[in-house]
């Protein structure tokens, strides 16, 4: 393969290593539409670098040595070495456009020839890089493009954002996760993250001055091989088929840099597999390279944004919108009405009745060949959604009340609800029960193990399904079927929970099973109480419920959300930043805005929505072309756009935000921002890409089935297991039904293929 030459001269043609003499520093003209100003820098050795600044913002960056590679000699035990240098030539070819060229000698008879094309637009500087290999050698290379941030402070004094991974700084980070503080060393901190782990290949930083800089792979590909992408090897690998990069930040004694590496090595920390005991991580690099093969050309694109942000929420929102507008995520249309009916049938298929106990079971195999669980349980909220399942069955029954299917759905849903109304709730002593025996059961405790007071029962579990029962209560009331016993049970819990409120408005994370005594006083999950109490106030008109919701909302905002720390949503993870905290906060702040019409709650709902959507993939990650298609859980050819990371500290994905459709649609109307309606439509459709449908089961056991999660990085296209849990189906159906309740015509518009 021939290399593309570095410099073109209209008089003498192409020159591989043209030399242009420049003054020490000169500023290039910028188009009138862009505040970014690019300048060339001359090094003492005569080579050239460049700097960039934003005329309208305090951000500026520089790089005296733009040519940089990590070079591996091919020996498995050999660490790569870094080579770096400046351009031999750099010139402005048009207003805002620059062309840089140079080379690095990496081995005897082997040279890497760089051609860098820079262009400035608005507050963004884009690099399109081509590197041609001249000569052959064993091993491989990774090229790196970085800028040093002017006036950067040490990492703990800045605010950072990586979608689904870093929101602010070290607080509420799982140890040994990307950006965590337990391995931070001043002046020696390296964070390289494979971009296939990221909802958008994006990293942003905010200085104490308010200046901000972000880096984005603006044309991601993400391809890899089955050998690399479906294992966890930390052995160095070199392959021309690697099309994924890494977003990076490095703190050194002489400053902090942000940038991109291609292909995507990962370090100093790297993740392994996610197990029941948590993610396996190591302070060890996972190096990936392209081959040193004569004629091989490496091409990629990366963009840098120079701006300002008022605070961390502003950094998150501005950086993410830039990534969204650049990557332009597309809707993946799905047959919503067909899937809706099939998914309700899955709930009915998992309904179990034993004596006077009934409910939708907690766990089933989503793939063909599943066997009945030996000791099934039914669980409130979070992953179990026993009452949410009953709610969705009742909604469907109301669509066809006279049919055999409708009558059966109603009868079974009512039995499930009646079973829970017999459980103690003030205080609660369990999260559910074993269907065969009626014994206590918990969401995070195996059914085969005895429940003791050492196990937790969570605020999240109860608030989730109390809301489910209240929605069912309201629908029944509108249909002329009052259910006072349902509301009375909810109020028992609500009145007891008021006794657990902490000074300042917070609520505990968990209590002890069997006794209901306090276990974990952490109040990071207080946001769970906000939509619960606001909904209970709307139904009852009892002012102390609204007062509690307002206090809880103020507490949640003041103790974390104002700084983009949405923490403690997923009870099967540690008390860390996660997406579910943001989505539940969005629900709560919208509810408070509806109840009070105070604009501050709408502003806070926007902040929560902006944070929540950053967990959602807005680029497509292809499954390995050489992987066994039958063994892939995420099927080849289906877009990954719309699926989300779950929590910081690991890289599993799910479709949880499918229930947030109505929240984003409502927010779009309340704010007049059409972007949120785009998010709503993607969440309605794209999240259902792996739901089985008639004639195309997509690897599941039948229409309406979907496994709980997948992974788009290592191991790509696979999940830890192939299980179904009720939350999967309830979340899909809630997204549909809530939108129908909000605006039936809008539902028809968004659901249309």
UniProtKB/TrEMBL annotation:
<protein>
    <recommendedName>
        <fullName>Cellulase Ig-like domain-containing protein</fullName>
    </recommendedName>
</protein>
<dbReference type="InterPro" id="IPR008928">
    <property type="entry name" value="6-hairpin_glycosidase_sf"/>
</dbReference>
<dbReference type="InterPro" id="IPR012341">
    <property type="entry name" value="6hp_glycosidase-like_sf"/>
</dbReference>
<dbReference type="GO" id="GO:0005975">
    <property type="term" value="P:carbohydrate metabolic process"/>
</dbReference>
<keyword id="KW-0732">Signal</keyword>
<feature type="signal peptide">
    <location>
        <begin position="1"/>
        <end position="27"/>
    </location>
</feature>
């Amino acid at each position: 393969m021939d290399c593309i030459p570095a410099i073109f001269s209209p008089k003498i043609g192409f020159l591989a290593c043209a030399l242009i003499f420049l003054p020490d520093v000169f500023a290039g003209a910028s188009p009138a539409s862009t505040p970014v100003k690019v300048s060339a820098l001359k090094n003492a050795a005569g080579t050239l670098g460049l700097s960039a600044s934003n005329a309208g913002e305090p951000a500026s960056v520089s790089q005296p040595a733009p040519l940089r590679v990590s070079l591996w000699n091919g020996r498995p035990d050999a660490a790569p070495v870094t080579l770096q240098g400046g351009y031999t030539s750099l010139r402005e070819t048009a207003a805002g456009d620059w062309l840089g060229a140079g080379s690095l000698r990496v081995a005897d008879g082997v040279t890497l020839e760089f051609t860098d094309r820079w262009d400035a637009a608005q507050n963004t500087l884009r690099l399109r890089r081509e590197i041609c290999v001249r000569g052959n050698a064993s091993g491989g290379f990774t090229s790196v493009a970085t800028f040093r941030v002017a006036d950067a402070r040490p990492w703990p004094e800045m605010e950072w954002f990586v979608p689904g991974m870093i929101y602010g700084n070290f607080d509420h980070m799982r140890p040994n996760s990307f950006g965590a503080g337990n391995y931070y060393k001043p002046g020696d901190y390296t964070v390289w993250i494979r971009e296939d782990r990221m909802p958008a290949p994006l990293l942003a930083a905010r200085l104490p001055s308010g200046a901000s800089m972000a880096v984005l792979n603006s044309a991601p590909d993400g391809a890899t091989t089955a050998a690399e992408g479906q294992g966890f090897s930390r052995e160095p690998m070199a392959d021309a088929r690697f099309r994924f990069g890494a977003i990076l930040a490095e703190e050194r004694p002489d400053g902090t840099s942000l940038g991109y590496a291609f292909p995507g090595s990962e370090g100093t920390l790297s993740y392994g597999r996610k197990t029941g005991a948590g993610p396996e991580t190591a302070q060890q690099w996972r190096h990936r390279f392209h081959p040193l093969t004569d004629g091989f050309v490496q091409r990629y694109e990366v963009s840098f944004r120079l701006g300002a942000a008022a605070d961390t929420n502003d950094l998150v929102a501005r950086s993410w919108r830039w990534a969204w507008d650049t990557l332009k995520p597309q809707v993946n249309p799905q047959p919503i009405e067909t899937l809706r009916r099939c998914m309700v049938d899955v709930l009915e298929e998992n309904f179990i009745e034993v004596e006077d106990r009934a409910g939708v079971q907690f766990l089933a195999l989503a793939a063909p060949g599943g066997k009945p669980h030996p000791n099934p349980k039914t669980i409130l909220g979070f992953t179990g959604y026993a009452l949410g399942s009953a709610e969705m069955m009742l909604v469907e029954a109301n669509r066809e009340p006279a049919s055999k299917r409708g009558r059966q759905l109603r009868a079974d849903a009512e039995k499930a609800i009646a079973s829970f109304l017999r459980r103690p709730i003030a205080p609660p002593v369990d999260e559910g029960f074993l269907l065969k025996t009626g014994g206590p059961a918990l969401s995070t405790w195996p059914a085969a193990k005895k429940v003791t007071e050492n196990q937790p029962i969570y605020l999240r579990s109860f608030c989730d399904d109390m809301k489910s029962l209240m929605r069912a209560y309201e629908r029944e009331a509108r249909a002329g079927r009052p259910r006072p016993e349902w509301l009375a049970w909810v109020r028992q819990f609500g009145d007891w929970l008021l006794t657990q409120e902490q000074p300042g408005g917070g609520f505990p994370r968990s209590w002890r099973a069997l006794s209901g005594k306090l276990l974990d006083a952490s109040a990071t999950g207080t946001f769970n109480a906000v939509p619960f109490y606001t909904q209970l106030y709307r139904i009852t008109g009892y002012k102390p419920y609204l007062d509690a919701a307002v206090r809880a909302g103020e507490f949640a905002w003041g103790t974390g959300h104002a700084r983009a720390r949405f923490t403690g949503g997923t009870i099967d993870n540690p008390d860390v930043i996660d997406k579910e905290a943001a989505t539940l906060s969005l629900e709560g702040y919208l509810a408070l805005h509806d109840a009070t019409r105070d604009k501050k709650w709408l502003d806070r709902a926007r902040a929560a929505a902006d944070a929540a959507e950053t967990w959602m993939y807005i680029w497509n990650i292809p499954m390995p072309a050489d992987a066994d298609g039958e063994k892939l859980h995420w099927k080849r050819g289906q877009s990954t756009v719309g699926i989300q990371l779950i929590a910081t500290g690991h890289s599993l994905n799910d479709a949880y935000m499918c229930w947030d459709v109505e929240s984003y649609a409502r927010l779009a109307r309340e704010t007049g921002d059409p972007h949120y309606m785009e998010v709503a439509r993607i969440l309605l459709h794209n999240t259902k890409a792996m739901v089985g449908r008639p004639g195309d089961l997509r690897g599941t056991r039948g229409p309406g089935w979907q496994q709980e999660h997948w992974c788009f990085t290592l191991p790509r296209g696979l999940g830890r297991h192939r299980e179904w849990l009720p939350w999967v189906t309830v979340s899909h159906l809630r997204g549909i039904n809530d939108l129908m309740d909000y605006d039936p015509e809008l539902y028809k518009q968004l659901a249309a293929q």
